[in-house]
Specification:
By secondary structure, the protein is an alpha+beta fold. The protein contains 14 helices and 14 strands. Strands 7, 8, 9, 10, 11, 12, 13 and 14 form an eight-stranded mixed sheet that branches. A hairpin with a 5-residue loop joins strand 1 and strand 2. Helix 10 crosses helix 12 (about 425-430) and helix 11 runs antiparallel to helix 13. The longest helix has 21 residues, at about 300-320. The chain is globular and about 60 Å long. The relative contact order is 0.12. The mean pLDDT is about 90.
């Protein structure tokens, strides 16, 4: 793949084992790799790290970043000034997981990006790092002889470039010369309007060995959804992490923005990250949600019951910003309930009709703005608590659950207070992570409350 300036970018990714540095060295030499992007997701899911020459990386694979990386808010300030980690800001040690090595097909030079795991000064995994939080939850399943599997679906909007945050976002102009108006769900023509972006998404995904199940047009104006195949939770979270970046890059190269905001337009539906969840027996591979006769097992009931019992407290992990709660309102096709139902998209927990070996739960509550590692960890943590506590699910809902009562926190502050007070989720996710996450989100909420919005000036300036 060549750029306009004649530089060649990399359009193929290596297939490496986690620690096979020798194979990486051979691959770097064979493909003349110039740079390595050493990245790790922060609490927001943003890639943090360093870029270094490939030759330097091969001799110094260990990288260091300050502990304050995990106390950074989305607006650039820091939370938890009372925390001792911020007084001295000691280094964290980042080591590469070479199995995550992927091409950077949009880079000017031939480059790889590699996700790194995070350790403290004593060599212990950082309990705050999102990838480690998800691993912690998966390890609890493994101790019981279970293997969770997930399949996220990622929604996003394409918009015109927006360089002034005071102005609302606008849908982009498609190849027909017309602006998308929305209400064209599943329309092939609507997808074709932005075929340049879609083609680049496929090209970049191929270069990164990321499989796409489908790309579809959603209900919003220039709103699309990418579906992934099911797999191990950490692997799928890595893929969403990569997908978000490549989608933004593909859009930018077509003079548009791609946004994963939960509610970017006030007059359009929000963007979700629906997560399909199942659990298998580690020895036999059998789906524990199905009994021998093919019917739903007690484990299926308990997994759903866990979502219903603990997801109020877990909401901050799947709706992490003030904007997230603009999506979770009545009347915009986003569930605000914890009901479950077979083939019922109005319920927060949908049971897709499937064969016994594919029986699963679709959690429809998470927003596209959520950190994929933490959103998946939240779903699995609630399910794990249900399985181990044998929590009974409520009766199935067969009618319109949109008209039911709200069962999720109404705003970010309520959500983070609920998470901080949840002893069961603290036990599964770890106190250090919960304390840090709550501190960061509380700081973000306080920063938001200092901003005076256009609504306030319009309705309060001369009327109160």
């Amino acid at each position: 793949m060549a750029h306009a300036d004649g530089a060649l970018s990399l359009d193929v990714s290596p297939d490496l084992e986690k620690n096979d540095l020798g194979a990486l060295r051979d691959w770097v030499r064979a493909f003349r790799i110039d740079e390595i992007e050493c990245v790790t997701p922060d609490l927001a899911g943003i890639a943090r790290g360093k870029v270094m020459p490939a030759a330097k990386f091969l001799h110094e694979t260990e990288m260091r970043l300050p502990s304050s990386m995990f106390f950074a808010t989305i607006n650039g300030s820091y939370a938890g000034n009372d925390r001792p980690e911020l007084h001295t800001d000691p280094d964290l040690v980042l080591t590469p997981d070479l199995s995550t090595a992927r091409a950077v097909p949009w880079a000017a030079d031939r480059s790889l990006q590699i996700i790194h795991d995070v350790f403290d000064g004593s060599g212990a995994p950082s309990p705050v790092a999102p990838r480690e939080v998800l691993r912690r939850v998966c390890a609890l399943y493994a101790e019981r002889g279970w293997q969770p599997l997930v399949a996220p679906e990622i929604e996003f909007y394409l918009t015109k470039p927006n360089t002034d945050p005071d102005y609302p976002l606008e849908p982009p102009v498609g190849r027909s010369g017309r602006t998308s108006l929305g209400n064209q769900a599943f329309s092939i023509s609507a997808v074709d309007e932005f075929d340049r972006v879609v083609a680049l998404i496929y090209d970049y995904a191929d270069a990164q060995s990321l499989s796409i199940d489908t790309i579809i047009q959603e209900a919003g104006a220039a709103q699309m959804e990418i579906n992934t195949y099911h797999g191990h939770p950490v692997d799928l979270a890595d893929r969403v992490f990569f997908f978000k970046r490549l989608i933004r890059e593909a859009a930018l190269r077509c003079d548009t923005y791609a946004t994963f905001m939960a509610k970017p337009h006030e007059d359009q539906p929000g963007s979700a990250m629906h997560i399909h969840l199942s659990v298998t027996d580690r020895e036999t591979g059998a789906n524990i949600f199905s009994a021998a006769d093919g019917s739903a097992s007690p484990a299926y009931d308990h997994f759903i019951g866990g979502q219903q019992a603990h997801f109020y407290a877990a909401t901050a992990l799947i709706a992490p910003y003030v904007n997230s709660y603009r999506r979770l309102v009545p009347g915009w096709a986003a569930p605000i309930n914890l009901d479950w139902g077979v083939e019922n998209r109005s319920t927060g927990l949908r049971a897709p009709r499937s064969a016994p070996e594919a029986r699963r739960v679709e959690n429809r509550l998470a927003g596209a703005d959520a950190n994929p590692y933490l959103a998946i960890a939240a779903c699995l943590a609630a399910g794990y608590l249900g399985l181990t506590q044998r929590t009974a699910a409520r009766p199935e809902v067969t009618d319109n659950a949109y008209t039911g009562r709200r069962e999720l926190p109404p705003d970010l502050l309520s959500a983070i207070e609920a998470l901080g007070a949840s002893a069961p989720l603290r036990e599964v996710l770890g106190d250090p992570f919960v304390d840090t996450f709550v501190a960061v989100k509380r700081e973000e909420h306080e920063q938001f409350m200092r901003v005076i919005s256009p609504w306030e000036r319009e309705h309060l300036l001369l009327n109160v």
